[in-house]
Amino acid sequence: MEEIFFLIFIFIFIFNNKKKYIILFSIALIIITNYKLDISFYKIVFFLLGIIIAPMVTNLTYLLTYKKILPLNKKYFKKVYIKLDIIIDVLFEEIIWREIFIRYIINKFKNVYLELIIICFLSFLFVIAHKIRSKFQFTEMFLYTLLLSFSSLLLNGINFGLHLGRNNYVSFLESVWKDYE
Questions:
Q1: Which residue ranges does UniProt annotate as crossing the membrane (predicted)?
Q2: Domain ranges (residues) in the chain
Q3: How far is 168 from 73, CA to CA, in rounded Å?
């Protein structure tokens, strides 16, 4: 039953892309799956580690995609550039796409190959939902989405930090360096 609701959510997200529908459906999905947020010491440590290493991991995906390295601006490390809208987006995306779906629904399959195919397919749909036009930006975002998905399976909590760190770092670079892409 949860799978049907999640597929409906994916289509709403891809074709409508309105935040109020995402928020309402996220709340409904959390209630339907009876999800309990697990916050542990290790999850907090991995979250902080993800924020710290996010600029380097972002540079790695940019290097693989664009064959260039983003500048590691010293101003970014001297002052925290965390914006509330980025935090809210990251929380909803990570809780819905990775925490609930990967941890709750995909683990029911008990077939590793099927799980990998579904994770790759959902990552592809997730990037399409962002309406990316450049093939390089699409490739970079797809690689980072796969990294977040697999990191949520291996080191639960680091995906939140990596996602928040990447979005803040890219937002900071957009404000400082207009031609970062």
A1: 43-65, 112-129, 141-162
A2: 2-176
A3: 13
